[in-house]
Amino acid sequence: MNILYIINPASGKLRRDGSFANRLAAAAKRIGVAGEMQFTLAPQHATELAATAAERGVKCVVAVGGDGTLNEVAQGLVHTECRLGLVPCGSGNGLGRHLGIVGGLERSLQILAQGVMKAIDTGCVNAYPFFNVMGIGFDAEISAQFNRMTSRGLPAYIRVGVKTFFSYRPRHYHFFNDTATERTTAWMISVANSAQFGNNAYIAPNAQVDDGVLELTCLRPAHPLEVLPLTYRLFAGTIERSSRAVTMQSDSFTIECEGSNTIHTDGEVHQTGSVLNIKTFPKSLNILVPPST
User: Fold this and answer.
1) Quick one: how far is CA 191 from the chain centroid?
2) 57 belongs to a structural domain
3) CB crowding 32-68: b at 16 or more within 10 Å, else e
4) Domain end (from 114, 140, 157)
5) Residue 225: pLDDT band by 50, 70, 90 thresholds?
6) Measuring CA to CA, which residue among 66, 64, 65, 7 is closest to residue 38?
7) pLDDT in tens, 84-105
8) Are residues 188 and 138 in the same domain?
9) Structural domain of residue 218, as residue ranges?
10) Distance (Å, rounded) from C-alpha 130 to C-alpha 276?
11) pTM
12) pLDDT at 17
């Protein structure tokens, strides 16, 4: 297979392990998926590299990094025949976990060698693509703070979340699709293509990446004593059963919130206006997954 590995040297494991790229090259050769390697130099560079590779006929482009690297590489491959591969090296790996791409370097490379192609949906909010989850509110604020940290991982994410909980002020939202509308004060609103944020935290347990629809989960403000039960539901995959949750399913949504807003797409943070227009492009990205997925 003609393969290009796009490597983000700033991703968690690569930043801490200077020998990772060499080990990747050696393992890829041993497993039979050796290919060219290119390193990203700046934000959006991965998108440029992936799009160029697809144009010149590369069969598979592999994102080596975290969810942000995945997002950038995938942007360059949407609506092309080129397949996306994953070697997760970040802190969350939400889409990879949803698709069963877990288990370390060798397991990821074996999926490249033995996996099957799956066509999945792409979400888009105000021209920003996402492949896992986008959000506004509390989780976007956490993403903004988390991205500024040098130490990542679930413990760091929890620390930021606890700190932000006591300072964040919920806002009033109006969100709707073709058949339903809701006006409410909310902590956060997530629109998910796959089931989880990452680290097995399930924000949309019923989401499927290839069904042509997105799952919206709105969490209304909770008393501090309710946070632990909500967190338990998040990891147990039952968040939609909470009295604090409002859920919708659609191929498109509009979310309105006065003033400027911070959003995230697969953990990458953007500033937007008061209206978010969200839609899905069904089965627009080809990705290699384990045979049983």
Assistant:
1) 11
2) yes
3) ebbbebbbbeeeeebbbbbbebbeeebebbbbbbbbb
4) 114
5) confident
6) 7
7) 999 998 778 899 999 999 988 9
8) yes
9) 128-280
10) 14
11) 0.92
12) 65
